[in-house]
Specification:
This protein has 14 helices and 17 strands. By secondary structure, the chain is an alpha/beta fold. The strands form 2 sheets. Strands 1, 2, 3, 4, 5, 14, 15, 16 and 17 form a 9-stranded mixed beta sheet that branches. Strands 6-7-8-9-10-11-12-13 form an 8-stranded parallel beta sheet. The chain has a domain of 327 residues: TIM Barrel (Alpha-Beta Barrel), CATH 3.20.20.
């Protein structure tokens, strides 16, 4: 099937222009002005913006208690056509097998295309030996957790350094969740011993300094290993500045933030009657001064992506209350957000004058694809790339509500947020999958897209000709 999108304002990460796009066999075939081609379907995008399908480099489907891939229609409706999921590793399950198992859960279920980051949760020699084989299964990134001491997620500095030294040899992008686990363990006990159990103490037990210190430590470990580093879900001014300063000094250190850190603050955790539990995620939401610093960071390029960290907890608010009532440390972590990522970034970024339309595309589409090893197949409008495209209506006005959300649980952390603009039409490889807030595609048609090694975070080494 062929498709012609005409008369729209095409927005890329570097420019915008009024033009036409011709799509055939799921790929962009021609891009120009007043294209003289015949197509099976013609869309008049006059008065609309046209940009690449969103790439969300940070989602959790099935890990941390998140719902599985049957709810990925939420991504499509929100204008995200590619998600990068994290494949959790159970004890004694080989790293590559864990990835294959997670992929099997998505096959014939996912509504958008998907790729994977590996996670080391069983740090032993046989697992480290698998790192060089990650590209064989289409994975080029690996995450370790500096937080969650006493759980299978936690990795000590020795494990992180060993993984970094091996990853560098094979073009694997190292990712860390940077929070000081010992600080958190001590502070959790300190507040619980005083009977301070409400959700807001999730923030007080994970203060900004815990993230700042762990981020700086991860940067030093990466420096010792001479390895690129990508710090996920940065939430503090101090952590952002550590990443910025290391990068300016010539070290290949990068980071992302998330939609909720750009729009919500610690005040949400203090809502009465345990309502604050809906906003528990890690790192926690921060006071306004950190939010302001993060907007500056994404505008200036000190942080290079905005993910959703989507985790729609299976059971929703009811399971959150059941597990966490009376002990903030037991509240399940995670917020749904994949559906709202683009409209929030547009409404509270572009329309507030905090970022340009080009920066919006860069943060939400292009650079996440580059970092994930999916570029140029994903994340841009260019001849030969997958025809993932959003026709965006800038005049739409509405309000985010869980009643129209597709993430499959009983609350939205962005309930009541006014928005302006929304994806009017969303195409996945040239096929219409969403229209005006409704999923209209065929479920299960998402494909596993394999990531390539030596992605964006290795560009420094390419310039220095230091790669093997």
């Amino acid at each position: 099937m062929s498709l012609l999108i005409k008369n729209g304002t095409i927005v890329t990460s570097v420019n915008e222009f009024q033009g036409d796009i011709y799509i055939e066999d799921g790929k962009f075939k021609e891009i120009g002005t007043k294209l003289d081609v015949k197509a099976d379907k013609v869309v008049d995008a006059s008065g609309k913006f046209v940009f690449p399908g969103g790439v969300d480099e940070h989602v959790h489907y099935g890990s941390f208690g998140g719902r599985l891939f049957e709810t990925t229609d939420a991504a499509a409706v929100g204008g995200t056509t590619t998600i990068m999921d994290f494949a959790p590793q159970d004890k004694d399950v080989p790293l590559l097998e864990a990835i294959r198992r997670q992929a099997a859960k998505a096959e014939n279920v996912a509504c958008v295309d998907y790729g994977f980051h590996g996670i080391i949760m069983d740090p032993k020699d046989s697992v480290f030996e698998e790192i060089e084989h990650l590209p064989e299964v289409g994975v080029s990134s690996l995450k370790l957790f500096m937080a969650y001491k006493g759980t299978s997620f936690y990795s000590d500095d020795e494990s992180i350094l060993k993984a970094m030294m091996l990853a560098k040899k094979f073009g694997i992008t190292m990712m860390v969740h940077a929070e000081n686990a010992d600080m958190i363990a001590v502070l959790q006990k300190y507040y619980l011993d005083q009977g301070k159990t409400d959700p807001v103490y999730h923030y007080y037990s994970r203060p900004p300094v815990a993230e700042d210190e762990a981020t700086s430590r991860a940067i030093y470990l990466a420096k010792m290993a001479d390895c690129p580093l990508f710090v996920v879900h940065v939430s503090t001014k101090g952590a952002m500045e550590a990443i910025r300063d290391a990068h300016i000094a010539g070290q290949p250190v990068f980071g992302e933030t998330c939609t909720h850190y750009l729009t919500l603050t610690t005040d949400c955790l203090a809502k009465p009657d345990f309502e604050g539990a809906k906003y528990v995620c890690s790192p926690p939401l921060r006071p306004q001064l950190h939010q302001d610093a993060l907007w500056e960071a994404v505008r200036e390029g000190w942080l290079i992506g905005v993910g959703s960290d989507h985790c729609a907890l299976d059971g929703g608010y009811e399971i959150t209350k059941k597990k966490g009532m009376g002990n903030f440390a037991k509240i399940p972590n995670g917020c749904p957000g994949v559906q709202d990522r683009l409209v929030l970034l547009w409404t509270y970024g572009v329309l507030k004058g905090k970022i340009t339309r080009q920066k919006f595309v860069d943060l939400a589409c292009t650079t996440p694809a580059k970092m994930s090893g999916l570029y140029p197949r994903k994340g841009l409008i260019a001849v030969g790339s997958d025809a993932d495209v959003v026709v965006f209506d800038p005049d739409f006005k509405g309000t985010i509500t869980n009643a129209t959300s597709l993430h499959g649980i009983d609350y939205s952390p962005f309930e009541g947020f006014p928005i302006q603009g929304r994806p009017e039409l969303v195409f996945l490889r040239g096929k219409l999958v969403a229209e005006k807030g409704k999923f209209v595609g065929e479920k299960g048609k998402g494909e596993w897209v394999r990531s390539k090694p030596y992605a964006l975070c290795y560009d420094y080494y390419k310039l220095q000709e230091k790669l093997p």
